[in-house]
Every structure is written in structure tokens, then in C-alpha cells.
Amino acid sequence: MKRVFLFLVTNIAVLFVLSIVARVAGVSDPSQLGGLLVMAAIFGMGGATISLFLSKWMAKMSTGARVISEPRSDAEHWLVNTVQNLAHAAGIGMPEVAIFDSPQPNAFATGARRDAALVAVSSGLLQTMKPDEIEGVLGHEITHVSNGDMVTLTLVQGVVNTFVIFLSRVVGSIVDRAVFQNDRDGGRRGGGPGYFVTVMVLQLVFGIAASLIVYAFSRAREYRADAGGARLAGRQNMIAALQRLLAAHPEPLPEQMKAFGIAGDAARSFGRLFMTHPPLQERIARLQAMTDVG
Asked: Which residues pair with residue 100 across a beta bridge?
């Protein structure tokens, strides 16, 4: 309950700050397309960007991850040293290393900068996977960081959010004038019922379509991270790690962290379009077919 409360409060604070920014910019009630686009960009890009800069804090809060400042055991020493070696090989700064309590094997990476990221693994991963398999998982997550996937995903999310906001309001204004004969320039100030109903419906429809774009990008970056993990830790280690995850059926991470984990949801009845990760079987098959890594 505490984590849900923190998540809700953070999002409310983001909306409040963005509302102030929009008013200061003078576009809180735009009547021109240029002003509308600025307002859409403020809310679409602004929300995604703020979420990115809060991502490490939110990840720690939502998973209860403990950052290893001083290793307490041989396993923690090995984990920190392995991350350090992989980060050096990938050409990035040393990330924070953390462990979160979960009996299922899983891991994630997040952060706004390549040289100040967070890599976290579950307690179940350390307990159930072999060192070579863990190294494969860590290589995958380090590749996410070195590729700048968190920033790129934020930009993709921000752009599609902007156009969802912009297009839904443009179409809503057209419907309001055409169907309800409400002239927003010559008549009463603000939109009529057609505007508000259309905007709500289209934000839902366009939002679903935008999600398909974000999910498609997320799946593509998983293949790239698998390939990078194979180069850093060895292809067989990466394949073995994915095979272990396939057998373990890892629990999904909290909603806001799903896209950043090593494994996502299983395929759903309505298809893979809404999956953040490709099926593990396909990822394993693609690695087995690779010829440019050892």
C-alpha cells in the first residue's frame, strides 16, 4: 500500500508541476494549433521526461531494492565486481547495484544517464541461477544501459503521448463544430459536449494505438540487449540464462518497471502486440542463430 501511495502521489505531483508550466507558458487554454501543440508537448514529453529522471527512485520504491554500498557477503562482492567488469567492457560508468526481495529470478536496469544507472537483481535470481547465467543476465542489463534504451524509450513514449493529446483535441474541435455547431471562436468560450466526449474517446483509442508503437520498440530493444549480453558475457551464458528464466516462469515486475526487466509477461490470448518482451523461446532461437558472437 505504501508503494502504491508513493506512485500515486508522484504522478499527481507531476501533473501539478506540468499544469503550472503550461500556465506560465501561456498555453493552458490554447485556441491555435501552434499553442495546442506546445501544450501537448509540455504534457506529453514533460511527463515522460520527469518519469525518466525519477526512474531510479521509483524503481527502488516500487521493488524495495537495496543498493549495495558495502557488500555483506561473497555473493554480493561477486555481483558488484561482475557488474563493474561488464560496465567497463561496455564503456559506461559504474552503475548502482541493488538487490530486491523476490523468490523468482528477475532483473532490471534503469536511470536517466548511461554513467549513473541502476542495475538490480532479485534475491531469487542469485539463489537459483548459476554464476555464468547471472553474468548473462547482467550483460543483458548493462547493454540496455550502454544502448541508452531508457532514454530512447522515454523519447518514444513522449512523442506518442504528444500526438495523442494533440490529435484527440484537433479532431474533438472538428466534431464539436461540425456536429454540435459550436463555434469556439465566435460563440461561448471552451468546447461543447461534442468536444469533450470526442477527446475522451479518442485519447483512449489513440492511446491504445500509441501503446502498440511503444511495445514494438520495447520488444526490438530486447533482441538488441540479448545480442549485447551475448557479446559481453558469452552467447552460451546468455542462452543458458534465458533458458533458466523460461523454466522458472518469473513473476512480472511492478507495472511501471515491466519494460525494464529481463523477462516480461507470457503471451496473452489477444496476441503479442501488447507484450513488452518477445517470447523467451524466440529470443533463445535468435541467439542460437547468431554467427557474429562467440
From this structure: 122
Residues 6+ apart with CB under 8 A from 122: 99, 100, 101, 102, 103, 104, 105, 106, 107
- H runs (alpha helix) in 25-148: 33-53, 55-63, 74-90, 123-128, 131-146
Burial label for 262, CB within 10 Å (0-12, 13-18, 19+), is buried
120 forms beta bridges with 98, 108
* Global confidence as pTM: 0.80
Helical (H) or strand (E) element with 98? strand 96-100
Bigger pLDDT: 105 vs 27: 105
234 Ramachandran zone, left/alpha/beta (phi>0; psi -120 to 50): left
Pairing of strands 96-100, 118-122: parallel
CA gap 209, 204 in Å, rounded: 9
Catalytic annotation, residues: 141
Query: pLDDT tens digits for 212-256?
Result: 999 999 999 999 999 999 999 999 999 999 999 988 866 666 665
95, 119 Cβ separation under 8 angstroms: yes
DSSP code at position 272: S
Cα–Cα distance list, 113 to 54, 97, 227 (Å):
12, 15, 21
- Quick one: pLDDT at residue 250? 63
What are 147's three cell numbers?
544502448
Say how many Å lie between the first and final Cα of the chain, rounded: 46
Q: Cα separation of 281 and 261, whole Å?
A: 16
Q: Cell 558469452: give the residue.
A: 234
Q: Are 40 and 48 in contact (CB under 8 A)?
A: no
Q: Which helix (H) or strand (E) holds 221?
A: helix 193-233
Q: Which of 172, 279, 189, 287 is nearest to 236 (CA)?
A: 287
In whole angstroms, give the CA distance from residue 90 to residue 82. Answer: 12
Asked if residues 130 and 78 have their Cβ atoms less than 8 Å apart, the reply is: no
The pLDDT > 90 percentage for the chain reads 48
